[in-house]
Amino acid sequence: MNNKMSYFLDTYAMIEIAKGNKKFEPFLDHDLYTSLYNLYEFYFVLLRDFNETIAQEFFYQFKRHLINPNNENIFKASEFKIKNRGKRLSYVDCLGYILALDNGLKFLTGDKEFENLENVEFVKK
Length: 125
What we know:
Layout: E1 7-9, H1 11-18, E2 32-33, H2 36-49, H3 52-63, H4 71-83, H5 91-102, E3 106-109, E4 120-122
Parallel strand pairs: 1-2, 1-3, 3-4
Helix pairs in contact: 1-2, 2-3, 4-5
């Protein structure tokens, strides 16, 4: 990673980028990371809403910078989900948020459940 801010993309952010949402364009010049779990959710949505060609094109584009979770990330993500049980947070989003924190990345999302959390770059739709 370089001195420029780097981001962890949640599934929401990847979908908005694929849809061409202009509000996410400023982030495209930065190093963008995600997890295989987010990529799985993302691929499913594109396959369902578009087609296999588009889904695979974006899959390989975002697959370049994957972060694999370790045991500690999973433990922390589970604790985070329990602490925030009043919010509608998916397991994948909780893990992604912890991966961002543990790797010095800003968590990029438009998911309202993350809007006021620390270390989140929230982009309104």
